[in-house]
Structure formats: structure tokens, C-alpha cells
């Protein structure tokens, strides 16, 4: 089987989430996106909520593989082991024999399939390993985010605290810890391509504000990210059509900065919690930087609620443009 396949769609039943609808996008001769989810909007049945379907697969999940010869670096493992197994089997059939796993951060939709890579080295930040260890019992019991449980949870076994270079044969891979979206974040920069594998630091339509108490710091860190020499951005949650055609321009960072700035500076407005997704991203949509996806309406409302609570009794900080 050739790794040059541009796209594949397959459905397979699984017990813990919806059907697998895996798409495989060749970004270049050494980088592949595996993409699942982002279904059309349908009514939600009462009591059917689970974090894998709602909050992950409904916005779409992409994981990435950097490969050369018979070696591959896998960046995140989807919400479920079934999806991760699909990817590993695909790669094995294509001739990959040696794997290394990198987790972008501790959130469950990025580590759900780690057990499929229990026999190889698994890299994350020291902070991510600490958080996963502390939450392991709850994650395996299905009480951390609710069902589905990830059991067993296989944690990364190699921690890093600072920028670290890794090589997939002759391909230089820069592992860069960042406190954006979550304090334990780890993005990948490919200097030869000027490509950023962004994890959850950036999303289309909007970022999930997972740590509202750190939102100002993370906004400032994203401003620093804007200064990197980036040509294309590939997020873990984004529009599959954009990812399939090589990824986002640097304006995805601009769109996210604009969104975060507005979420922060408007937080004392009397009608703040009534602000719609379109109110906050309309300008970026008109510029073609991002697009409206229905599954981001609830996360946007949650973002407003969390930031409102943080700044309820605090002055709004001055933010640099």
C-alpha cells in the first residue's frame, strides 16, 4: 500500500463513540493527516452525550504522522483506541515498522488511543505526564469527563521540559512546549516545511478556553507564536477541506487572537453572555480566515461563561495588539 493516497473514507462500527469515518490526506511526501468526525448537524438524543462524540468528533479530529522509510512519528491518538488502531494498521500495511508517539497535551480526545502504542516510546511534556498520572484513576473510571472511559490509559513514558529536536530519518522535527490552550501543550514545528502542527493551540472555528484563569497569559504566548517563521498551520480540530489542501495560513493565529481579545475585553458588557459566535468571529469569517461550524456554538457559549466568571470582580487587563 502506498502512503501517497490522497483520501480514503471508511466506516467501521465501534462501541464507545460513533462510526469511524476516517479520511487520509497526504500533505506532502512525509506528512499525512488522519481525519475523523465533523458530521452534519443532527438532533441530539437526551442522555446520549459523551465527550468523544460531543466536543471532539463533532468538531472534527485530525492526527498527524511524519514518516520516512519504515519509521514514523505519530502526533496524538484520537479519542478512541479503535481509531488509533485503524491508523496503526494502515501505516503497518504501508511498511512502517518503527513508531514514536507524541501527545500534544493531556486532554482525553488526544490520548484515547495511546494503548495502541504501549510498545513504543511515547513523548509529552513533563506537565502532561504529571496531569495524566494524577487523573489516571478518574479517566479509567470514566468520571474525569464522563463516559467513555479510557481503560487502560497508557501514559507517555518520556517527558520533556523544553524545546527538543527529534529526527525521523533525515527529517528534523522540533518539539516545542507552549502554554496555549493548556499549560502542558506541545506543538511540532517542521523547519524544512515551515509547517506548524498546532494541536489544540489553534482551531477553526474558535479555540476552546480550557483554562480561563490562564487566558491572558495564553493570549500573550499566542502573540509570541505569531512571530514564528510559519508558512502553514495544521490544527487537530479544523476544516477537513482546508487540511486536505495543505493547511491554514498564519491568519489562523490572527483570527484566534482577535477572538480571544474580544472575549476578554467585552467580559464586563451587560449583554456579554448573549454574544453569538457570529458576533465574535464574523470579521474573520468574512476575511476567509476561518469558517462557521455548527458544533462550535456550545463551546463559544462555554467560553463566555468561563471568562465572565474569571473577570467578574477583576479589572479587564490591557492587551497589546
Question: How many strands, which pairing sense, and closed or not: the largest β-sheet?
Answer: 8 strands, mixed
Shape: globular
CATH architecture: 4-Layer Sandwich
Would you identify the regions where 5 or more consecutive residues have pLDDT less than 50? Answer: 1-17
Proportion of beta-strand residues: 25-35%
Number of helices, counting only DSSP H or I runs of 4 residues or more: 9
Q: Under the CATH scheme, which class?
A: Alpha Beta
Domain tally: 1
The value of Rg in angstroms is 19 Å
Spatial strand sequence of the major β-sheet? 1-2-3-4-5-6-7-8
**What structural class do you assign from the helix and strand content?**
alpha/beta
Q: Which bin fits the share of residues in helices?
A: 25-40%
Total strand count, please? 13
Name the CATH superfamily assignment: Ribonuclease Z/Hydroxyacylglutathione hydrolase-like
The overall average pLDDT, rounded, is 93
- C-alpha end-to-end distance: 48 Å
CATH fold topology: Metallo-beta-lactamase, Chain A
* Topology order in helix (H) and strand (E) letters: EEEHEEHEHEHEEEEEHEHHHH
Amino acid at each position: 500500500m502506498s502512503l501517497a493516497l490522497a483520501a480514503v473514507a471508511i466506516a467501521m462500527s465501534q462501541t464507545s463513540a460513533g462510526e469511524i469515518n476516517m479520511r487520509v490526506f497526504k500533505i506532502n511526501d512525509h506528512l499525512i493527516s488522519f481525519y475523523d468526525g465533523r458530521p452534519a448537524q443532527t438532533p441530539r438524543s437526551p442522555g446520549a452525550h459523551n465527550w468523544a462524540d460531543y466536543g471532539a468528533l463533532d468538531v472534527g479530529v485530525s492526527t498527524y504522522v511524519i514518516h520516512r522509510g519504515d519509521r514514523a512519528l505519530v502526533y496524538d491518538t484520537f479519542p478512541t483506541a479503535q481509531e488509533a488502531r485503524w491508523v496503526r494498521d494502515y501505516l503497518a500495511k504501508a511498511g512502517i515498522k518503527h513508531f514514536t508517539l507524541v501527545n500534544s497535551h493531556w486532554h482525553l480526545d488526544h490520548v484515547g488511543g495511546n494503548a495502541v502504542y504501549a510498545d513504543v516510546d511515547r513523548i509529552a511534556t513533563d506537565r502532561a505526564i504529571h496531569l495524566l498520572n494524577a487523573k489516571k484513576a478518574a479517566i479509567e473510571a470514566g468520571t474525569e469527563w464522563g463516559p467513555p472511559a479510557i481503560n487502560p490509559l497508557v501514559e507517555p513514558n518520556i517527558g520533556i521540559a523544553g524545546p527538543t529536536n527529534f529526527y525521523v530519518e533525515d527529517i528534523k522535527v522540533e518539539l516545542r512546549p507552549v502554554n496555549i490552550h493548556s499549560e502542558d501543550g506541545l506543538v511540532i514545528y517542521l523547519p524544512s516545511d515551515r509547517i506548524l502542527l498546532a494541536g489544540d493551540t489553534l482551531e477553526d472555528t474558535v479555540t476552546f478556553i480550557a483554562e480561563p484563569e490562564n487566558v491572558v497569559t495564553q493570549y500573550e504566548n499566542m502573540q509570541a507564536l505569531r512571530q514564528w517563521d510559519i508558512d502553514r498551520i495544521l490544527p487537530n480540530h479544523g476544516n477537513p477541506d482546508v487540511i486536505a489542501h495543505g493547511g491554514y495560513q498564519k491568519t489562523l493565529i490572527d483570527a484566534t487572537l482577535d477572538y480571544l481579545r474580544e472575549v476578554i475585553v467585552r467580559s464586563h458588557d451587560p449583554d456579554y453572555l448573549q454574544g453569538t459566535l457570529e458576533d465574535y468571529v464574523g470579521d474573520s469569517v468574512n476575511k476567509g480566515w476561518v469558517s462557521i461550524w455548527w458544533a462550535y456554538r456550545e463551546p463559544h457559549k462555554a467560553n463566555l461563561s468561563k471568562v465572565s466568571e474569571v473577570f467578574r470582580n477583576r479589572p479587564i487587563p490591557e492587551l497589546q495588539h
